[in-house]
UniProtKB/TrEMBL annotation:
Its EC number is 1.8.4.12. This is peptide-methionine (R)-S-oxide reductase. Residues 17-141 form the MsrB domain. PROSITE patterns: MSRB. The lineage of its organism: Bacteria, Bacillati, Actinomycetota, Actinomycetes, Mycobacteriales. It is an enzyme of class 1 (oxidoreductase). InterPro entries: Met_Sox_Rdtase_MsrB, Met_Sox_Rdtase_MsrB_dom, Mss4-like_sf. One of its GO terms (molecular function) is peptide-methionine (R)-S-oxide reductase activity. NCBIfam families: peptide-methionine (R)-S-oxide reductase MsrB. It catalyses: L-methionyl-[protein] + [thioredoxin]-disulfide + H2O = L-methionyl-(R)-S-oxide-[protein] + [thioredoxin]-dithiol. It comes from Rhodococcus chondri. The keyword Oxidoreductase applies.
Length: 142
C-alpha cells in the first residue's frame, strides 16, 4: 500500500531565514533549508534500530516510524513509507543533471532527502525514502 503524499501548499511553520538560522546549527540549516546532503555513512541514524518516531529536526513534525525503516546499505537512513501520507511533500528535482523526487517536511517545507522507486528492495512499497539523518530527530518509543 503506497501512500500518496500531499501536494505543496503554504507551510504551517513559516519562519524567516534569520529565524531558521537562529533555530538550526549551520550544518542543519545547509541541509534542511538549502537542500544540502550530508556525506554518506556519517549520519547518526544510518544504522539505528531503536524503536520510535523520527521527527523533522526543524519543526518537530512526525515524519517516519522505525517500523518502516530498513537497511538499504546506501549510507543514509531509508524508509519505505512516511508515518502518514500527509507528513511529507514530494517535489520534482532536476538538479545535478538528474531527475529525482525531493522529499520535504509538509509542516515547514524543510528538505529531508529524496525518494526512489523500483530499486528491487523487498519492501511493501518498493520505495526508498533516502533521508538525511541531520534532517531528523528520533523520539524513542517508551
Amino acid at each position: 500500500m503506497t501512500s500518496t503524499p500531499r501536494s505543496e501548499s503554504s507551510p504551517e511553520v513559516a519562519l524567516s531565514d534569520e529565524e531558521w538560522r537562529a533555530r538550526l546549527t549551520p550544518a542543519e540549516y545547509a541541509v534542511l533549508r538549502e537542500a544540502g546532503t550530508e556525506r554518506p555513512y556519517t549520519g547518526e541514524y544510518t544504522d539505528t534500530e531503536t524503536a520510535g518516531v523520527y521527527e523533522c529536526r526543524a519543526c518537530g513534525a512526525a515524519l517516519f516510524r522505525s517500523t518502516e525503516k530498513f537497511h538499504s546499505h546506501c549510507g543514509w537512513p531509508s524508509f519505505f513509507d512516511p508515518a502518514d501520507s500527509d507528513a511529507v511533500i514530494l517535489r520534482s528535482d532536476d538538479s545535478l543533471g538528474m531527475r529525482r523526487v525531493e522529499v520535504l517536511c509538509a509542516s515547514c517545507h524543510s528538505h529531508l532527502g529524496h525518494v526512489f522507486e523500483g530499486e528491487g528492495y523487498s519492501t511493501p512499497t518498493d520505495q526508498r525514502y533516502c533521508i538525511n539523518s541531520i534532517s531528523l530527530r528520533l523520539v524513542p518509543k517508551e
